[in-house]
Amino acid sequence: MPGVGTLLKQAQKMQRSIEALQTQLDAKEIDVATGGGAVKVKISASGKFRSLALDPEFLKEDAKTVADTVLAAVQDAAKQAKDCHDAEMQKVTSALQVPGLF
């Protein structure tokens, strides 16, 4: 079993890696389009919404269709950002191996 000093060094290294990853995820952008491109959402991999664009022609549709399509785009963007975030975070946190703890 690793000593406390080794575990502390691993934890500090992981903390630095997480901080660097958070900066990278904040800079990475994910583009999502729904409704044949009528609704476009841009979100960072850290989950910060950057923009929402609606085709003016699409706004002529009934309100329920517009609302449902916008909601679907936002939900899809949030899911993609979370999946990206979780996958990248797993890579960093899997480096810390503590037998019997996780």
Keywords:
3-stranded antiparallel beta sheet
What do you see in this structure?
- The chain contains 2 helices and 3 strands.
- Helix content is 54%, strand content 18%.
- With 102 residues, the protein is an alpha+beta fold.
- The chain is rod-shaped.
- Helix 1 (4-27) packs antiparallel against helix 2 (63-93).
- Strands 1-2-3 form a 3-stranded antiparallel β-sheet.
- The mean pLDDT is 89.
Brief synopsis:
By secondary structure, the protein is an alpha+beta fold. The chain contains 2 helices and 3 strands, in the order αβββα. The chain is rod-shaped, with a radius of gyration of 20 Å.
Main beta sheet strand tally, sense and closure: 3 strands, antiparallel
- Principal-axes shape call: rod-shaped
Q: Helical proportion?
A: 40-55%
Instruction: Indicate the radius of gyration in whole angstroms.
Output: 20 Å
- Summing up helix and strand content along with how strands pair, one would put the structural category as alpha+beta
- Number of helical regions: 2
Order of strands, widest sheet:
1-2-3
Query: Spans with pLDDT under 50 lasting ≥5 residues?
Result: none
- Give the termini distance in whole angstroms: 14 Å
Helix and strand pattern: HEEEH
Q: Assess the beta-strand content as a share of residues.
A: 15-25%
Mean pLDDT: 89
Tell me how many strands there are: 3
